[in-house]
Design a protein that fits this description.
Strand content: under 5%
Shape: globular
Number of domains: 2
Oligomer: single chain
Radius of gyration: 21 Å
Number of strands: 2
Number of helices: 16
Strand order of the largest sheet: 1-2
Largest sheet: 2 strands, antiparallel
Structural class: mainly alpha
Order of helices and strands: HEHHHHHHHHHHHHEHHH
Helix content: 40-55%
Length: about 350
């Protein structure tokens, strides 16, 4: 079985000296090798090369997200079809992003669009959207993605059906002029706190939502300004480091993002950036989560947080074409003329 973890590793004593006071484990080298190999797979597929795209048996068997969050299929749909499809006001853009992200499912967005026409704040009705979604559920359709769990909101918003609560929450946010308040936030952390002030929105969702909103022109923060590690990332950090040396998980992610070029060079690993864009904090956070999953097979004896020992989702190639596009303000679309189709 060929895996990234079987490549040669530098001595742990030397590695720990470089990273003191935190103490890396053998999984830390796997983190960087995983990032490079996952990105290499992405680039091969995006260029239309025929698979298999890697010799790594774990990556060929199981499903992992891309090294760059914005390259994932759902993020790509959000950027192209929700944020930058047509000319929308700031209020419409925020409304569309949050509506999409509450369900995080392409098919749900397409269902609403097909049934209701143009999706905009001006034509939004909780009852109208509820009828479409309730009918879909009555037909046995799943309207939520399995990527993460949205709290039901029943205790805070009062409705029996989860989707009705989320529509009511969206209505509340827009009535509260969330778009205007977001534009007054000077830092990503302030926008995060604003989102978190609404019912059912905790740390994980607030960070995901502010990242998605930040793909638009409504707000514009550096993705190197702020990070919130999710449960999977925290577990991955514990697998990569046996001792954090008094640092927080957030500080560890900052250090990893800052030192990425040095670590790739140390391992002699070539990482293919998206244009000139290095991995951002959100990407490094996600990579800890994916390394946690990868290590369940590659390093089964290294403990993280929790008791998961298997990877649930197996890899199945999706034949639907993707024309890759990234937020124009990043300035990398012109650099990626060879990256435009996935087969």
């Amino acid at each position: 079985m060929s895996t990234l973890a079987q490549d040669g590793l530098c001595s742990l004593s030397e590695l720990r000296y470089r990273w003191a006071p935190i103490e890396p484990t053998v999984v830390f080298d796997t983190y960087w090798r995983f990032a490079a190999e996952r990105q290499r797979i992405f680039m091969k597929r995006a260029r239309g090369e025929i698979g298999p795209w890697t010799e790594d048996s774990i990556l060929r068997t199981y499903r992992f997200t891309n090294a760059y969050r914005a390259s994932d299929r759902v993020s790509q749909f959000l950027i192209r079809n929700v944020i930058y499809a047509g000319n929308h006001s700031a209020a419409d853009t925020v409304f569309r992003i949050l509506l999409f992200k509450f369900f995080n499912k392409v098919e749900t967005w397409q269902l609403l669009r097909d049934e209701l026409g143009d999706i905009s704040l001006g034509s939004f009705s909780v009852d109208g959207y509820d009828r479409v979604l309730s009918s879909a559920m009555d037909r046995g359709l799943k309207i939520y993605s399995a990527a993460y769990i949205m709290p039901s909101g029943k205790s805070q918003l009062g409705y029996k059906r989860k989707h009705r609560n989320h529509l009511a929450l969206l209505d509340m946010m827009m009535a509260d002029d969330l778009p205007g308040k977001l534009r007054q936030c000077l830092r990503m952390a302030d926008a995060f706190d604003l989102l978190k002030s609404y019912p059912t929105i905790g740390d994980f969702l607030a960070y995901q939502f502010v990242t998605d909103l930040n793909y638009s022109e409504v707000i514009s923060y550096s993705e190197m300004d702020f990070v919130v590690p999710g449960p999977g990332a925290k577990s991955g950090i514990r697998k990569c480091f046996s001792n954090l040396g008094g640092l927080s998980e957030e500080e560890v992610i900052y250090l990893v993002a800052k030192r990425q070029e040095d670590e790739f060079n140390r391992l002699g690993v070539h990482f293919q950036r998206l244009g000139d864009r290095p991995l951002q904090l959100i990407d490094c956070q996600n990579l800890f989560c994916e390394t946690d999953k990868y290590a369940r097979v590659a390093h089964p004896c290294v403990a993280g947080i929790g008791e998961r020992t298997r990877i649930k989702q197996r890899f199945h190639s999706n034949p639907i074409r993707i024309d890759y596009i990234y937020p124009p303000k990043w300035g990398i679309n012109q650099q990626l003329s060879g990256v435009g189709e996935q087969k």
